[in-house]
Amino acid sequence: MVAALCVVLSAQAQETDAHIYGHVIDKATGEHLPYIVVMLKGTTIGVTTENTGHYMIRNIPEGSFTVEVSAIGYKTQTREIKVRKGRSYEVNFTLEEDFVQIDGVIVSATRSETTRRMSPTLVNVVGMDTYNKTNATTVAQGLAFQPGIRVENNCQNCGFQQVRINGLDGQYTQILIDSRPIFSALAGVYGIEQLPANMVDRVEVMRGSGSALFGSSAIAGTINIITKEPVRNSSSISHTVTSIAGSSAFHNTTDINASIVSEDNKLGLAVFGQNTSKDAWDANGDGFTELSKISGQTVGFRGYVKTGLYSKITAEYHHLQEFRRGGDNLDLPPHEAMIAEQTEHGINTGGLKFDWFSKDQKHRLNAFVSMQHIGRESYYGAGQDPNAYGKTTDLTWVGGAQYVYKMGRCLFMPSDLTVGMEYNEDYLRDNMWGYDRVTDQTVRIMSAYAQNEWKNEQWGILVGGRLDKHSLMDRLIFSPRANLRYNPSENINFRASYSYGFRAPQAFDEDLHIDNVGGTVSMIRLADDLRVEKSQSVSISADMYHSWGDWQGNFLVEGFFTDLADVFALKEIGLNEEGILIKERHNESGARVFGGNLEGKIAWRNKFQMQLGVTVQKSEYKEARSWSDDVEATKKMFRTPDLHGYLTASYNPMKALTLALTGTYTGSMLVEHHAGMIAQNVTVSTPDFWDMGFKAAYDFKLYSSFSLQINAGAQNIFNSFQNDFDSGADRDSGYIYGPTLPRTFFLGVKLVY
């Protein structure tokens, strides 16, 4: 295999003595721009500009090519060129700033690369700039700064976080890694908080149902985590220490990144690592944690081999090891505590992908296989229970292929036809031997999808659908979609969409999760006649861009409506022989979620940027329902405020200094408060709150390509943290709302090459 690869690369390296060279400069400043990607579109040929802003692509084969120059913060430019053997061509570029990301590249809308402006459906991108401004160290922390999204902590003991999109629970969101649905239900409980931000190139968020592309659970939206790909030789190391509430509890995080690319740009490897250690914290001094103790390490890589001018193999892998513990008496074994939730995770995730496209750029083919294996040792118990230990393993893998045919004209307009097939298998085994509880479940899903997208600069029409055969369901599930895009001008985008979604009735891990309510262990089982949960979603949006000299602006308005049928719900069945409270998941009539998102961006060159987003929504069941006999029935969904939003702003008074102000707002919402410390179950209407943060960073130029950054700041400046926690062993650990952290202060250092 190695010999064959060497032969391929050797053949590819045949010299033609035809070169393209030039420089890339900033239009506003006239400065040369380093590390800008210069590619021959539709091929694997490309380089990055040197630190002088110059580039050279050597030994290009004869033919006609499109030279494409792209970089974050700049508008993409292209240039057509015809290459002859033995000749050199000078091609220079002057890039215009694009801080509103009109030309940002996305893949989640169609499973193929396109620009945000030309996308048939609305996709928001969370880049590393947002993670840096907010001092976010995990994927979950940076997602809160997008319209329609809320990130919340749902457990004082374990620190479970979930991401809600357009007013729906986290279980309605599909999580992808590099566009692959390998983020299993078991991983979904803690996983998005476990993923380090330094492994991410960007995160794409597509609101609304995505089942037509990605299958089950993509009802509220899809979060696609795109990992970093090597583009140049570079490295960095950083460390951040955070003081929690000014106490003796600290959170330390160390990040390492490095990438190396061969001189001919045919081989590349990016590696990353993170070590994190967070002390437990007790907010009310009752001896029980509000923030769990966490220690974890993550290492991984992404690399590529260009096997030809029009083909490429990409591999990605990362390993995560994590320990977390919450409750009381953390220095004792879990069964000697009054309440303990303890997990030890070992997670291996990886994928292999082959991309090929034809010389005339009409045909594209990719084949892939991805997997995730999770091993978890756990303890979920109360009252010094020796039986609450468990072990869970989960293996998820998916393989498939996708073909795209670019037609010059199909009926009335050029179009792209996309067809694909996938096979997904998930094997889960959960053993809680003390209670003689074993879950052994294998889910197999065969899928096929097809779509045709007619598009030009002004119009885009997409029609498609997906068929899924789920092993737990007798019938095929068909998920159609239809999208319309109209661009009356380059800077105005109107979109309308319809999509069908579904959520399969399987044993999700949150169903297996054992919670502690008043010291009583509870479990959840699935009803025998549980049906698939279905949804229909529509949305309309207007996305507008404008420039005023050195100022750029973007305004987005979006309306959305989702109708749910056969909604999953819980009811208490009673205690079993072991004294465990059994809850059953069953179907109820349905629910409706509707509202609107507003987002505005404004930027003045590279000096000042501000982004503001607001979501107004209603999330209601069609019939009033009660989560307990003690409380009044209501149509309103829990943990879904009618109003929430976010703000990010940054200012660079000088090139080396960055000042950032960020924050999220959450309006009042209904939250369950279970009996235990209190006499009976009650429904609580929470107060609204702001969670504001500030960060200052200064970059010191050390030598040549070396720089040192010192940063400091605070999170939750106003300390709008919950002040009515339950206390003692009988507390309701799920009665938690508000910001995920109290007021904290951080100091960081970063060395970059």
Return the CATH architecture of the largest domain.
Answer: Beta Barrel
In percent, how much strand structure appears in the residues?
Answer: over 45%
Assigned CATH superfamily of the largest domain:
TonB-dependent receptor, beta-barrel domain
The fold-level CATH name of the largest domain is Maltoporin, Chain A
The domain count comes to: 2
CATH C-level name of the largest domain: Mainly Beta
Separate helix tally: 6
pLDDT averaged residue by residue:
88
Helical percentage: under 10%
- The count of DSSP E runs of length 2 or more, i.e. the number of strands, is 43
Low-confidence runs: 1-13, 514-519
Morphology call: globular
The radius of gyration over CA amounts to 26 Å
- Report the major sheet: 22 strands, antiparallel, barrel
- Kindly, what is the distance between the CA atoms of the first and last residues, rounded to a whole number of angstroms? 35 Å
Structural class by secondary-structure content: mainly beta
Question: How would you describe what is shown here?
Answer:
- The chain is mainly beta.
- It has 2 domains: 1-97, Immunoglobulin-like (Sandwich), CATH 2.60.40; 212-244 and 260-281 and 293-752, Maltoporin, Chain A (Beta Barrel).
- Helix content is 5%, strand content 59%.
- The chain has 6 helices and 43 strands.
- The strands form 7 sheets. It has a 22-stranded antiparallel barrel. Strands 1, 4, 7 and 8 form a 4-stranded mixed β-sheet that branches. Strands 3-2-5-6 form a 4-stranded antiparallel β-sheet, with no helix packed on it.
- Strand 25 and strand 26 form a beta hairpin.
- The radius of gyration is 26 Å and the shape is globular.
- The model is unreliable at 1-13 and 514-519 (pLDDT under 50).
